Every structure is written in C-alpha cells, then in structure tokens.
Here is the input.
Amino acid sequence: MSANTGELITIQMSQINPKERISKIKAIKMFETGFLNKLEAGKFETLSKIHKYLFEDIFPFAGEIRSENIAKGNFRFTPVMYLKASLEHIDSMPQSNFDEIIEKYVEMNIAHPFREGNGRSTRIWLDLILKKEIGKVIDWNKVDKEDYFLAMERSPVKTVEIKELLKKALTSDTNNREIYMKGIDASYHYEGYNIFKSSDLK
Ligand SMILES: Nc1ncnc2c1ncn2[C@@H]1O[C@H](COP(=O)(O)OP(=O)(O)O)[C@@H](O)[C@H]1O
Ligand SMILES: [Mg+2]
Here is the structure.
C-alpha cells in the first residue's frame, strides 16, 4: 500500500516542470505590480524587458537577442545577420488600428528574437499594444490552440486567418485579472506548459 503511494508520487513529480511555475508566477507579478503598464507599447526593447522579467531565473539568455538561426516546422525565422535591422524596422511599424497591430505581431514572430520563449512573451507584448492603442486585449481562452498554430504557420504568407481568429477573441475588459490569468494559462498551454493554473499560484 505504502509502496504504491510512493510510486504514484514519483510519477506526479516527474511531470511537474518547475520552470513553468517560476515563469507563471512572474507573469502574474508582471500584471499585479503594474510593471507592464509602464512599458512603451510596440517596441522591441519592451519585448526584451518582458522576456527578461518572465525568464531571468530559468534561461541564461533572458532578454537577449539570439545568436543562432532557428526554424519551426518548415519555417526559418529571420537569420541572425538580419535580425537587428529587422527589429529596428518593426519598432517603426504603425500600430494605430487592429490590422496594423496584428501585422506588427506577425513580423515580430517572423523575427523570433529569442532562442526560446518567443510565443509566451510576444503574446503579452501584443496585448500591451492592443490595450494602449485600441483599448482592447485578446481573451486567449477564446483562441483554440490548433486554430492558433495553423493561423501562425500561415501568417508569414497571409495574415487574414490570424486576424480573423484574434478579432473574434477581443475584449474591452482590459484590466480584468481573471481574463489575464486564464489568458496566461492558455498561452502557456499552447507551448505545452499546463501543469499549474495561475489561480493556484503565489
Ligand atoms: N511553423 C511556424 N511558423 C511561424 N510561426 C510559428 C510556427 N510554429 C510556431 N510558431 C510561433 O512560435 C511560437 C513559439 O515560439 P517559442 O520561442 O517556442 O515560444 P515559447 O517558448 O513561448 O513556446 C508559437 O506560439 C507561434 O506563435
Ligand atoms: Mg517553445
């Protein structure tokens, strides 16, 4: 009986990823301390600060531009040699309406400036632009994981799918703690992190 219990605990512990817990706590803190609201919307420097804040305890490269070329599926993100110029260009892209903001998000995804953690940090960066420029954010719980990945894979060629998908999930409830926390859970779930619920942390 006790041996069985021990085995069960071992299995559960092996499934727990402490990195998920550490960066989710940071994601909540980022909202609650007002850190996010102080950042300038739509700049790479802001994304870098978000990335550093989320991942400084778990990635040695938190906040730093990658120095290797990377790909996902059949897509190669911006080569390192063009990355800095690309990020400067993205900084100057307009962001005065929903379509422009999503186009900017798609370009930032193509740049993929970090070795890891681009998805989770860039979705927070996107919400900050939407919030400051059009008074809305995405309720990520309304965005299905598979639909999201299909639309993102397609986005370097055509942005219509990702625009349609994200537009349906917009909410004006931009300071709602529950929407934010469940949104973090959804965003981490897209990337395979789904052991901890934000509402249970802290
Ligand atoms: N084939 C693809 N083409 C373009 N973008 C993609 C592709 N696959 C994944 N992505 C984007 O990359 C993100 C994941 O980047 P990654 O650096 O691994 O972030 P994280 O570590 O937060 O998972 C996804 O959320 C998606 O936006
Ligand atoms: Mg990843």
